[in-house]
Amino acid sequence: MKLVCLQHVAFEGPAWIGSWAGEKGLALETVGLYRGDPLPRPADFDGLVVMGGPMGANDGYRFHWMDPEKELIAQAVLKGKRVLGICLGAQLIAASLGSRVYPNPKKEIGWFPLDRAAGADASIFGSMLPRRFTALHWHGDTFDLPPGAVHLASTPACVNQAFAFKDTVLGLQFHLEATRQGTEALIENCRDELVPAAAVQSEQEIRTGYGFLEGTHALMDKLLAQLFLNV
Predict the structure, then answer these.
(1) Active site includes 177?
(2) 175 is an active site residue
(3) Total domain count for the chain?
(4) pLDDT (tens digit, 9 = 90+) per residue, 172-188?
């Protein structure tokens, strides 16, 4: 199993996903779109990981690689490749499957609890989610569920937090892959987004949530194993 990780900015890498892949002996190649690395072909990988970033899924006019990236994702899904999207990555998957991506009524930044969606058990991934769990959020956009997708999780601030498609594609708005180092990089590079609001925590509040990392990594491990090992 060879994984390719599409990275949109230097400060949002595979994080815990990289640690997990190394532990399982899986090859993980990181493609830095922000630094001009060429997109791979579907034949070049078995699994695709699409990371987050501060740009939007509709910003192809700003980033020359974004529309070709969406086409790559669509081809990978069509060919039955295993695909994981995190935050922007989930939005790009939704867009590549024909769904609308647009600004959420409010930004959601910080550690907030999610509820498993009604009907989530229709997907193997949904059955693995706790009824309620807390994860790191850092997003301002949302998406409509792709046709045929299973809704997996929601928060009061953002209904469509996760979806599965054909048990080979998983989109997560939230950051189960986050590490302490990666979160500090987010704070450093996106500090201007931490404007006080009901669903936006302060730097200090975000840092007090590092105790959740053990639980989020354990859940990430389970989802990654189902997606990339149970093939």
Answers:
(1) yes
(2) yes
(3) 1
(4) 999 999 999 999 999 99
